[in-house]
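input
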Amino acid sequence: MGMKMKVSSCAYLLSLILMISCHAQAEFSMGFGEFEDLPEFDEFSVPVVLTATRIQQHQADVPASVTILDSELIKQLGAKSLSELLRYVPGIMVGPDNNNNSDAVHYHGGPAALPKNLQVLINGRSMYRSGVAAVSWFEMPVALEDIRRIEVVRGPNASSYGANAYQAVINILTKHPADTYGTSVSYSQGNNGEDDIYLRQGGKIGETNYRVSFTQKKDDGFDEQDDSRMAKFIDFESHRQLDSGGELEASVVALQSTKGITGQVDYQTNENEIDEDRLELGVRWTLDISNKHQLFVKSYVTQYNQSQAIEVSRVPVALLNDSLRELFLLNPDAANTMAAGGDPTSLLTSQEEFNLATSVQQAYSGAFGGSGSTGQAPVSGTINADMDEYRFDVEVQDTFIYSPNLTLVSGASFRRDVVKSETYFSGEANNNTSRLFGSVTWQATDNMSAHLGLMFEKENNADSVYAPRVAVNYKITPSQSFRAVYSESVRSPDLFEQQAYWSYTLDDAQIDTTLDNLSGTTFYQTQQGPDNLDHQFIESYELGYYGRVPFMDLETDVRIFHEHQADVFYQSLRLSALTTEEDLSVRFEGVEWMLNISPWRNGQFRWNAAVLNAFSNAEDTDTEKVILKIYARNTTTFSWLQSWPFGFSTTFSYLKADRYDQLHEDNEAHYLFERFDSRIAKISNISGYELELSANIQRDLSCDPHISAINKYEDKTRFQIGVRMNF
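output
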């Protein structure tokens, strides 16, 4: 009943907007001229979208649902991180990822551990790690101050960005170096351990514009966990206009971070911390062959190094027995029974298993109910849980305007991923991905346009896949359109899901007594990936409306959708049971909307919301709760942004996720996320310099923890005080 009422309310809202739009008259001229910003309407402007189809289009012409967060909005909202900023996108859900001390960001919903269903780009560079295909949102190497705009394409978009543009694409576009001349310095501090520094210098050397920035950020995390974290990075970008009519852009990013991880390895004696280093080098060359033909080539190289030294002691020597480890690989239940001191005889299924169990019993009979050596002699040592990841990516794109009504985009890319780790892969794993893509955008009539996109991709670790997108837009006015979209996408298993060989080996192992023999240095629980996973698949149906009218500068976007995921797989992240659930299906359906309105001068109200139902075919509720851990039926954000005289500005926001884990009505552990955010800022000019003072306050309105019972802040009210100066 509640779902029907909310959908009816949305339909009423859409009808009201259409009635208002009948009074809007505007001139419109759509051209496929040179690659400059598209013309704006006379009475009001419609945003230009770059990401959805890889060409510039007014948002009313885009064959997708797109949310744009520009630099001014980012500053006014006062969000302190990218993940917090994405809460203002309809359908985006955010929760803690305790496995990685980061944030789990989902579109519509998914697991909390290392989510992988979004393609996340910074200026076209994928932010996914090569080995575990995770996005570390806290360590994302881009400062909020450097972002020009964020475009979120809500819906599968593999036809433009390949496999793993699965449920949505988040494209973070930074400011042009020519727009960041001068010096900017900012510092903020908060009562949850926040200690953030930002420095930027921009200028021009010869014909080359450049920007270099330094960012450092810290916070203490939740009070019941040892999850403090710190990241610092340098970001350099340059742009040069070439005499040939082309452009050359280069970027360099160097990052270091340290973070605590909740949940320690058994027998660990030191702090559970991970150190990360990241280095990215990128280059992009653009050539305007004519005012109708453009070619660009981009390439980037990424190196990621994870270091984690786990010191352990008091490990019973029997648990390092090589025969017990071989038995675990064949029969985990029997090996675990032996390790717990039980009799595994009834669980053994082959002569090989029987021989291994006998060997263990003879070596450490006291540990397994017999007489003789105890097998309990303590062993100490260090586990080096290091992982090095490398990515090389090159892409070529050709854009050709065949006629004012027909634009063609085509391209190819190649990517090589390599990961090295003795702990997680027993050496090295790699994967090569080749991709072809193309699209046609056709202006069939003055009011109707059609889009067709197609992607072909081949990996050496998986089958070849195709992914299409078909869309039709019908414009009822120059700034209002209906759209119908069908799209498909796939998600590739990452290297860990496919080729994991996870084991803990002690370096410099020392046994505290000579009563027992050290017959191995590797913990008996060793896990291997299935190495036979295929892609998981999603198909999406969408009906939508976008409109912008002069009446109070009203802008809205409505999306009604049905998404079906098939062949879904999920891998637990426990050494004791690295199980992979396969052949799952998940279905999402619902409606989401965005409404922006400016009822008076320098004031704006923004309302983003989603009503969502999720279904799965999981046979047990435990699996269903895991694969949809980050999920809420109703989400909403409501903001009032206001500029005042004398350089003052304020923002007040209400955010709510109406009870996480509502998938199971009998589950008492529903978690409500409800928060009030506010920001006040004052800008002054002092001797030609711009000085901004700001204060941000977050107030939890609900007492529930964030997704998990251990995720609680020490203070329900958190604040940050900041100062910024531009020279």
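quick obs: The first strand starts at residue 48 and ends at 49.
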